[in-house]
Amino acid sequence: MSGLFISFEGTEGGGKSTQVALLADRLRKLGHRPRTLREPGGTSIGEEIRHLLKHSEANHLMMPEAELLLMNASRAQLVREVIQPALTAGEIILCDRFYDSTTAYQGHGRQLDLELVRSVIEFAVGPVRPHLTLLLSVPTQVSEERRLARQASGTAGLRDRFEEADRTFFERVEYGFQQIAEAEPGRVKLVDATQSIEAVHDEIWRHVAVHLSPNCD
Ligand code: TMP
């Protein structure tokens, strides 16, 4: 028996967490028991790594190479502690970000060698791949406006090291995601996240419905 693994990707401000929650609700109403996860994080070890990567004062001096390895340390733990066993048990997993974020952020954004990034990811995930990836796309300017609005309204909470990067960084990240979508159109579905929340959800649902089978928990 094998489950269904769906990842959500995209730059900041695309509404990923809202869409993960909406999809989980809809699946629950149909009698499924989806498991929602996030990266970096999703395990006790991963959540500590997340804090270090995003919020810790100690991260001011973090080098791109250390960032790449920490992202994948969190991922290696999540895959073995949670994702692999859950898939074996036939569960549905909804993950807010997975390895495409590493290609986009550490590869394209931080400009680390893409082949090296790929080999680190492969070491971290082993044979595990998402069956479906929903790439929520918003223009860089919209993403920036949403990010700044969140910071201004105080809903951003703790300082976030990633949100301190400049516009050219996010443009490279967005370009990276577009490249990934073009390279793997079977797995990666581009969703226009400038639409209303309901319209985005409906589009996501159409992609997910194709993958649902009575085998999934
Ligand atoms: P988020 O959970 O609020 O999206 O924050 C996670 C941040 O970490 C986000 O800025 C993207 C970044 N990130 C990477 O740079 N590489 C990765 O592999 C992952 C999973 C996230």
Which features would summarize this protein structure in a list?
217 residues; alpha/beta; Rossmann fold; 5-stranded parallel sheet; 5 strands; globular; binds thymidine-5'-phosphate
Summarize the structure.
The protein has helices at 16-29, 44-54, 64-88, 99-109, 114-125, 140-152, 167-183, 197-209, and strands at residues 4-9, 35-38, 92-96, 132-137, 188-192. With 217 residues, the chain is an alpha/beta fold.
Explain what you see:
With 217 residues, this protein is an alpha/beta fold. The chain has one domain (4-209): P-loop containing nucleotide triphosphate hydrolases (Rossmann fold, 3-Layer(aba) Sandwich). The chain has 8 helices and 5 strands; from the N terminus they run βαβααβααβααβα. The chain has helices at 16-29, 44-54, 64-88, 99-109, 114-125, 140-152, 167-183, 197-209, and strands at 4-9, 35-38, 92-96, 132-137, 188-192. The protein has a 5-stranded parallel sheet with strand order 2-3-1-4-5, with helices on both faces. α1 (16-29) crosses α8 (197-209) and α4 crosses α7. It is globular, with a radius of gyration of 17 Å. The model has no long low-confidence stretch (mean pLDDT 94). The structure holds thymidine-5'-phosphate (TMP). Thymidine-5'-phosphate binds at residues 38-40, 71, 97, 101-102, 105-106, 162. The site of thymidine-5'-phosphate (TMP) has 10 residues, from α4.
